[in-house]
Design a protein that fits this description.
Layout lengths: L2 H6 L12 E3 L2 H10 L6 E3 L2 H11 L5 H10 L3 H6 L5 E2 L4 E3 L3 E5 L2 E5 L9 E3 L2 H23 L21 H15 L5 H9 L1
Parallel strand pairs: 1-2
Antiparallel strand pairs: 3-4, 4-7, 5-6
Helix pairs in contact: 3-7, 4-6, 4-8
């Protein structure tokens, strides 16, 4: 066994117990701004913070993705992996069947990591309308690129880059961090999703 392997065999792993979810109260936000430390590994935005972020993000191209994460608790990889064929807007149902993860920097398609993740989600009227509008914009982007004789990648994904290719998960996080700074809310994409899960 190598020295690294020998050393690893003596490492004590932390308990798998999930950290307790805590709200981003005004006191927690103040402390986080001063120190950069989060009070818990699982922090939850208040409804006001979620609304503040979504109101600010509404003009951004990725607003529908963030709305879906906020209202239905999807993970980043699940959202960028979502296919139109698994979305029934007429019935207001979304089935999570694929996720896009990163292997180093390279995005790779996979199946959801838990059975709970691979579920069918009921969508609210606002989410359905936002996704309908998003689909129309995506088709307009496709038409514009083809008219300009630029390539369009028919990936079938709900959320794509401007050329139809897979949306890189880190691009989502970069956009989220920028919008959070502009909106003045804590910076963690998990907090947006967990605001609906808890």
């Amino acid at each position: 066994m190598s020295a690294a392997g020998d050393e690893a065999s003596h490492v004590e792993l932390a308990s798998g117990k999930r950290p307790k979810a805590m709200l981003w109260t005004a006191q927690h936000v103040k402390r986080w701004r001063e120190t950069g430390e989060e009070p818990s590994g699982v922090m939850v935005w208040t409804p006001a913070q979620t609304g503040q972020f979504l109101d600010h993000a509404e003009a951004d191209r990725l607003y529908p993705l963030f709305l879906l994460i906020a209202f239905r608790g999807m993970r980043r990889g699940e959202a960028v992996g979502q296919a139109w064929q698994d979305l029934d807007l007429g019935a207001a149902l979304l089935t999570v069947s694929k996720t896009i993860i990163q292997a180093g920097w390279t995005p790779m398609e996979s199946t959801p990591k838990t059975e709970d993740s691979a579920a069918t989600i009921v969508l609210g009227p606002l989410t359905v309308q936002v996704l309908r509008d998003h689909g129309a914009r995506q088709q307009a982007e496709r038409a514009e690129r083809l008219e300009a004789r630029l390539p369009w990648h028919d990936t079938g994904k709900v959320f794509t880059d401007t050329d139809g290719s897979w949306l890189h998960p880190e691009k989502v996080s970069e956009t989220f961090r920028r919008l959070c700074r502009e909106a003045g809310v804590p910076l963690n994409l998990r907090d947006l999703a967990t605001s609906r899960r808890h």
